[in-house]
């Protein structure tokens, strides 16, 4: 029973994390063409606050994911799908760290990337989400 509660909170935080992972690069797409003034400041505030919420989502996902793992069946530790999932989650956490470097770059007027670049990068969490959901649901190996 505890295991199911932990898993429910794990999924809750996954959704919170992904809301930010999807929306932050979108904000960057629109921020690219704004170079100063009140609008720039507004974008910076939105990005900073959204980054904090997204980080809470990531920490909750990790905390409840590990708790779900530790309270679940022993077989999980030996499952290939779980190892593959954890690898993808590490890549996703790296992507999260990269977003932080972009929030800073915009705040310091150092962004040199185009809107097209951020549109492309926006697909990274989409692909990782699809791969992770397929791994946890189908458990193919
Ligand atoms: C941060 C490290 C993570 C750990 C240690 C972890 C661990 C786990 C464990 C042990 C389960 C239970 C598996 C089962 O019910 O068969 C689970 C379920 C789940 N995880 Fe994670 N997870 C992590 C991150 C993520 C991420 C990033 C996502 C989404 C992209 C995700 C999506 C899910 C989903 C959808 C389930 C429910 C599967 C089901 O009930 O069939 N997890 N996780």
What this model shows, in words?
The protein has about 140 residues and is mainly alpha-helical. The protein has one domain (about 1-140). Helices cover about 80% and strands about 0% of the residues. The chain contains 5 helices and no strands. It has helices spanning about 1-30, 35-70, 80-105, 115-120, 125-140. Helix 1 packs antiparallel against helix 4 and helix 3 runs antiparallel to helix 5 (about 125-140). The longest helix is centred in the middle third of the chain and has 35 residues, at about 35-70. The mean pLDDT is about 95. Bound molecules: protoporphyrin IX containing FE. The site of protoporphyrin IX containing FE has 19 residues, from helix 1, helix 2, helix 3 and helix 5.
């Amino acid at each position: 029973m505890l295991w199911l509660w932990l898993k429910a909170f794990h999924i809750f935080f996954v959704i919170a994390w992904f809301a930010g992972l999807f929306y932050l690069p979108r904000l960057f797409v629109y921020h690219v063409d704004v170079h100063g003034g009140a609008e720039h400041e507004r974008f910076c505030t939105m990005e900073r606050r959204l980054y904090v919420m997204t980080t809470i989502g990531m920490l909750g996902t990790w905390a409840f994911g590990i708790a779900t793992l530790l309270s679940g069946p022993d077989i999980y530790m030996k499952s290939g799908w779980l190892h593959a999932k954890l690898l993808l989650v590490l890549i996703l956490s790296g992507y999260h760290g990269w977003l932080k470097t972009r929030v800073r770059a915009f705040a310091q007027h150092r962004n040199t990337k185009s809107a097209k670049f951020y549109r492309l990068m926006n697909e990274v969490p989409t692909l990782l989400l699809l791969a992770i959901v397929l791994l946890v649901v189908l458990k193919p190996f």
